Records
---
Amino acid sequence: MLNFESLGDNCEFGLVQRHFSVEPQGLLRFASVRLDRLMDAIDSRFTGIDDIALEDRSGEVVATVRPYQFVFHTWMRTAQTDLSHAEATLRTRNRYLREHLIAELEAGERILVRKSNAPAAETDIDRLLAALHRYGPNTLLWVRLADAAHPSGSVEASGPGLLCGYVDRFAPYVRAGNASFEAWAAVCRQAWQRNGAATRMYAVPRTRAAEPWVVDFTRGLDAPWPTGLTSMRRAFQFTRAGPALYRDRAGHMVTVEPDTPRLSSGLDGTPRGLVLEPEATNLLPLADSFVASFAPVDGMAAAPSDDVPPLRHRAAVMRHMITRPNAATRVYHQLLSAGLEVGATYCCSCWVWIPAAYSGSRVSAMLHGSTTRTDVPADLARRDCWQRSWSVGVVASDPPVLAPSMHLTGTQGDVVYSTCWQLEAGGGATSYIPTADAPASRAAEAARCSGSAFGWFDASAPGTLEWEGWIAGRVPGVLRLSDGCDPQTGIVLAPSGAATAAGEAVRIVATFNDGTLRCRDSLGGAAAPVALADPLALCCLELLPAPGLLHQRLRYSPGTQAA
């Protein structure tokens, strides 16, 4: 009984555990939980679980979780309870049990139990299982009423990670302790045996046919999911430990909260795709307010300005003017040495605004002090708007010293503007990370979807998976297909080469047939065929993070081979 975790719909299973002298900690063990509200909570990682209201019901303090309308027993007598103290205690309890449950879900070691006196639809159980699989390799025990074909106490495997158990009756909601204890005990014994290492597999049953589907991130996360049962926001598990910036449809740089996906747009407002980036650190302090951090250079003047709109709210804008005729000159940002490594690769980037009157021939970020440098200058054809320029180089000096700077080639009086400077390790520029008095970091982000939500890849039969997106530079991979148990295993689809520095649309096609995967892409490359050890176990899809990578569309077509 200790190896099971209740997901509702009432406290019957919690009382079954108590009957057998088992008292595990569980967030939902004694809670009344509707299935749709449960999935909302799972999809949001139980955010707001400590937002509670207390009331008296028949002499007991009963708590309601406001965001999801969970109602649970506290086992506190109203006459003997200080409600203000009880509320603080229960908030702390719920926060602790939330972290405990999330850890359990990510580990996938307990069997999760869901029952309902009223019959639940199989599609709803599929959605619940998909939500649980986004955390980890979980097993769901769906307990139903016995019938002629399914005797009380029996358990059967009904799909990947799904067990169906049968009891002769459920306790009435008004008397949840009047359960069929022996039937429950038999179901738990059978479920635990069936969930042993030999049988706990997430391979796809051959009787379940694969279905075609299309995911288009340019349509937004609330667009219908291919099955029509949910949306992309609910089908994928998006994770990121901290806030991050992206460009919205109005062209503004906006901040999103942790675990919130970023759908970026181009400068013209056209949706570009889903941004997923690795962990990164902006090594430039005061990158959002750098008025005093520019070093004076002969032939160049730099001063704060409000001539042009800021790229993001409260971001400082600097005005750079060439002060001598026919100059090729630089404006230095900060001279940095702390935290740098000799021989390491770094990327300096900034956003620039080129006025219509600019007559020069070059505007470019530059990483002074580095060798084997690659500069990506601004596009002089784009005027009166913000665009990004960056420079990648290797630290040459020992001790290491770098000076992020801007290179201008123009004539006396030419003016450009810059904002949102960044210096980071690696060979590409990630999205901007604001800093204060010290370097600042952004956590890595991920997007993962289990096969229960989108269908299954039966690689033993013909089928095609197509990925479309934008890539700048070289990325190690765009997505991983696995069995959902170990995220470090599986097949990684990667482009054969590097896209242009400015970014270009790339299409990668993976073809399945006879247990073999063949991959090719629009960059002109093809990978060697890969023989899959278990063709039916590809039931988890994970989009990979990389600098300069935007995920646009995914399309799966069973029974066909791409041209």
---
Amino acid sequence: MKKLLKSNSSLIIPLVLLVISVLYFSRLFYPTLSVFTTPDFGLSEPFAYTYPMKKLLVESYANGTVPLWSPYFGSGSPIYSEGYYFLFNQILFRLFDTIAAINLSFIVSFFIASFGSYLFLRQQKLSRLASAYGGLTFAFSGPLVMQITHFSVVQSIAILPWLLVFVHEFIKGGRLLVWLFLVVIVSQQIFLGFPQVVLISMFVALGYATYLNLYSKKFFLLIKIIAAFALGAVLSSVQLLPSIELLNFSNRQGGLGNSATAFSYPWIHLKTLLWPFSLGDPRLGTYPFFANFDGSIFWENTGYIGAFSLALAIFGAIYRPMRQKANFFIILAVMSLLLMTGKHSPLYFLFNFPPFDFFRVPSRFIILFVFALSTLAGFGLDHLIALLSSHLSKTRLQYFSLFITGLSFCQLFFFSFNYHPVGPAKVWLPSRSHVASLKQTTARYLTYGAGEVWNREYNQSGWKEMDHYRLLLNFMQPNFNLWYKFASFDFYHALPTRRQLLLDSLVKSGIRQSNNSIEITGQSRKLLALYSVDTILASSPVSGAKIEKIPLYGDNELIISKLDSLPEARLVYEVKIAHSIDQLLKLIGETNLEKTAIVEEFLFINQNQNNKGIVKEISHKDQSALFEVETSAQTLLVWNQSFYPGWQATINGKKAEIIPANINSQAILLPKGQSKVEFQYQPKSFALGARISLISHLIVLSVMFLGLFQARAAFFSKYLPLSRRQNKLHKDR
């Protein structure tokens, strides 16, 4: 690695790569602080996830807390995968506000991706120009540029080349210090919270290590590479253990089955390698709706690297004198193509087995396909320069090489720079709520039908009228509500719990829109009231509700309908038991849920609905709540925060058992009289993971420090004259 960096002509290449990244994202800072506003199907990913979740990260850093639970989507949900422990997030989101930190992170991520790819290509013995060209081609290719709206995906992809750099260094040298750096990089990628990209990275890293071992015959090094990934997982236990716990309570516990091949790459999409808009342009509303295009999504399937780069990649693959060097990347391109085509591929059966069946969107293997093409493009440029070196003078060859490089990159830069729209942050993310008249009297609201209005705009006009999308944000689709700390009954979550999914499906199954009005059945009304939903945001009014209309644009209106609802915490003096979903559905239909709770196991209680009591909320934070209760008899306190392991309750300081009630609520049995009840989210999985991560980091970082110290000592003993060393030792004495 030291020789590799030394050969870079000082810092010229990394400086150029950094300057290009800064220039590319400069519009996010000048003339005013701006945000990406790119629409997706049904919502805008930056507003639905990136901006609100990273705002939560900034607030957590400021408060010195770790974000573990959010009460603002669904009926409360655990949150672990927001890049809290990633090194650059620790720095940027502590020093800057949310938008500035996100924008700076884009610069850092694209620089990391381009510089890491550059170093990897230098390891393949390519020239500096060809290596820089390949690095820039990968960093500004379709997969990274299209995923700008998916912040964590971009950060995760940027780590990929560095994994290969250290795998290469370790296989070639077998040094412990390099292996430890690999371990740390693995853990950092896991911390970013996008496990599918980690799986993709492991696939190529292990494949590359195996390929190198075919020549070195040091197969024990391959075992050490596997061990590096395992130890990297140990370092990230603080995030992995709670995430595994959540997985076990989600609908992905046993894999996704046939859904694992959803959003596979169609073979016809290969024509977009020549021109990305050959099948339609989302900006103009001409790209087919994914439901009518076999699940194809533009930003998942675009692998454009530029026509010149594609030609160079083909040349790099077929140029016989250098074929042996390019073999791995040819194999990688073919394998990743077969994987990303998913259900259309002869390898479709792999998605029936772990770990492939835990994820949707096989087309994300396009990351490896484009990485292979970008690398082959670097090979192609290097080979072309070598062929022309005997026909052109050195000066002309340099000018020609720079011209080809500049022309190729400008073609890619023009496409990627003009795809994502931006808007002033102060316009798109005001400090107060978009819905100024939305005043919550209880806990939650529900958005209904906003996706249809959004998609109508998206499919007809693309993003010609960006101000329309800004106005449609008034529907406060999740998780945009997190930005304003409004609690939504809806959720936008990769791993919702099975209880949350059941509750959501029962509610949504009883809501119908017809004749410009929304009808809500009795069962759905009961459940909405039970979970303190007193407001419906929609484009049509709810029948029988008090409404308020807010004009948006054209004929589109936001209609706020007010419903009756129950308090977030209440006392009940009667329980009914449901041992199955069928029993549950029957009891919901015939039970007065205001006075009765439905539980799942026998519970002894002196049932009498004439008893009375009062609940007073003292405090309610994201991960805790405190209530004062006074009751005339033994009672059940039902709190409509999601039932999930890690929640603990005390009654007057003594531990109490929490039981599930009403599908997804927490309940505890209270004695007669006055009680102070406290709920706290303190998951054991997080506590155990934190201890494991802390101890393993201390060990790994200590060994790395000793290794660096010894390397420095060896350097000075080799290059510092003996007399000076002796003089220094004499002075120290």
---
Amino acid sequence: MEYESSENFIRHPLIKPKKLEARLYQQFISARAVEENTLVVLPTGLGKTSIAAMVMAHRLQKFPHGKAMILAPTRPLAIQHHRFFSEVLNIEEDQIVLITGAVPPDKRVDLWTSGRVFSATPQTVENDILTGRLDLSDFVLLVFDEAHRAVGDYSYTLIARHYADKAKNPRILGLTASPGSSKEKILEIINNLHIKHVEVRSRRSPDVRRYVAELKIDWVRAPLPEDYKSILDELRSFYKDLLDKLKERGIIELGRRDYVRLKDLLRLRTETITRMEDRFAAVIVAALIKLHYFMDLLETQGPEPAKRYLEKVVKRRRRAASDRLLLEDRRVLKAWKWLASLPKGSVHPKLKELASIIDKEGIKHGKKAIIFVNYRKTAETVLEYLTEKTGVSASLFIGQSRREELKGMSQEEQKRILQDFSSGKYDLLVATSVGEEGLDIPEVDLVVFYDAVPSVIRHIQRRGRTGRGRPGKVVVLVSGKKEESFYWSTVVKERKIMKALREVSSEVKERERHPTLDKFSAEEQEKPSAERKVPEVIVRVDVRELGGEVVRRLASFNDVKISVSRLEVGDYIISDEIAIERKTVDDLASSLVDGRIFDQMKKLKATYKRPILLIEGETPYRASKRGVNPRSLMGLVASLVTGGLPVLWAKNPEESAELIRLMAIREQTDKRVIPEIKHPPAIDERAVLERVLTGIPGVGVVIARNLLSAFGTLRRVFSASEEELQSVEGVGPQIAKRIVEFATREYGEE
């Protein structure tokens, strides 16, 4: 890799003079990254984006007609990258392009063609790949920022898979401060991004140490008062009682600690709703989730947030069974009375400790700080308290969406606040998670974790806001057993990550040194598409299916081309005769409840010669989230099949995609046909009007026709009095009364 260092800056034809500092570790990592797909694990503030710029410059010089792109998970971060590459790369400004969902699709087509360097959001790129607006074959580098997101069905996974398959000269660079909390998670990222080499540095690495300042980490205990602890102990005993009820029903198995995490409860909720054999178990799980949240607020946020939450439950007009289960317990009622008895303005002990820390660290006297909190309402409370008690100049820094009755900040507001913070207008930011990942927040002297977080990735990102160019300090506030366990958990996890990274790095090297039989057999698949002779079939997909795992899976097949349109009938069209309507078991139940399944299938059969209903789910006949009885679903399927509609089953999206692909191959390869989008026959408006009236109990088709013949329009029918309705043949007092009640009933009434 031909770089020169001049006056401690990188010299390269595609990098502007005196824009990139020459750091040896960055140059070494970049030299490896241009040779093979590389994952770079580097602490925040040590120039991951500079490495990306160096690799990009090399690849674009080597392939003069190639293109490059950096992907970032949020629009503000994509904007930040666009600004950085515009300042650093010696490329025409109009060829460095920002692509986000804010850019109209038609304009994006032109930009993908005319640009050379792109900063983009992954969801937009994924959509443009699936809709055929973006061809990645000429891209010589894809950079995945915050690469730890490349797991599960996140857009990074599909983009990397598509790129590795389609590009003529592919190269992938992944960037992250922390790839995950386990070896399995790291391996998933490596496999999903097709990584062949891993570069890891920590603050202690010999070639990095000279570029980082001293970082001191303290944790400060803000102990809860005795009355607090007493109430929490009572609530925990109720929590355990509810867990015991689930254990008695065989829903869970409790270990030594008798503790179930929130994510386990959320998974249980899905499972109990899915099974629905034991409705009371579902109620218990819902109550446990609410109790968990209430206890968390009380222990980590203070009495006011906990009181507000319980007030909402108490004042609900229609209480769920789980609400009643909570409010009927003496321990919850005792907590409610205790909260109501507290003096107005009672605060969590952490707030007083926080004010003391801000004063002691001299934040008002030229130093800067960020306080990270988990809840927006708490952020507001912290800001008000510190402003009043310490006189510090501070601002909120929160995300865009509206949550917790607190309006979010627009990107322009976020940008202005960061500029004001950088210029010295504010000494302190009170930030939610939006301040953790990626954004160019100025370096600070102090970072405070108002809430400990169990996520090691978030812990590392928060900590990385200080101790870069000048000494920094991190303070973690803990007030109870839960926060203390979170803190020590992240410490242990971080040690495990470094060990796992060393192991994974060795495994990846070994894997590349000794290719497996699977790799040899897959060589033909891994060749660029230009070298392969794979017949492509076209699957036309309804735009509403975009983002789903079935479409992602279809797009991953080398022999399938996706064409996206808004389909009037069906979800997938594979020939001029076959259209497929896909429904999960819960979708099927919902469409049975509202009756739309019959209209959909009627349209499908009227439009395509060979319509198919594809039902997806592990257990086809089970109680759904809508509470539909399995027998009703059996009856529906029996009715559709005996009515001449073929029904196929798939366990999951992967099976659905495979079935659709195989049917498309049989139709298009053997018969040489192209899927044709057809439009349903013209609607019989008379039948639609009749259907509205026949939805009223007691009103059959004959009576509906008589009413419409007598009054002419639906409006006149529904405006008529009971006496006027009874003048129509077949309409007696009871039916007339039902029609009037139907016409005047408020939506939502039962």
